Amino acid sequence: MAQNDEGSNSKEQDRLLPIANVGRIMKQTLPPNAKISKEAKETMQECVSEFIGFVTGEASEKCRKERRKTVNGDDVCWALGTLGFDDYGGTMKRFELSTCGTMN
Fold this sequence. Notes:
Layout: H1 2-14, H2 19-29, H3 38-65, H4 73-82, H5 86-103
Helix pairs in contact: 2-3, 3-4, 4-5
């Protein structure tokens, strides 16, 4: 029975962003003297992981309907706009352009 619990816990952790990364991003955003509880990090970890899955699912569905197998940055930006996150779509597009420009 314990193995099943461990297995399901492992699957749960696989779908979440690493908590250290979430904590690091939170620290960069908050004032230097701010303290972040473990519960706050875990809550944020759950929220951002759910958000990423939500957006990725929408982008993936678009690709499926277009009979494509690969989700690209434009698909993610489209999904953000479709889901009502237009502000994020513009930010993502600018990031994608700046990244692609430096890679060439």
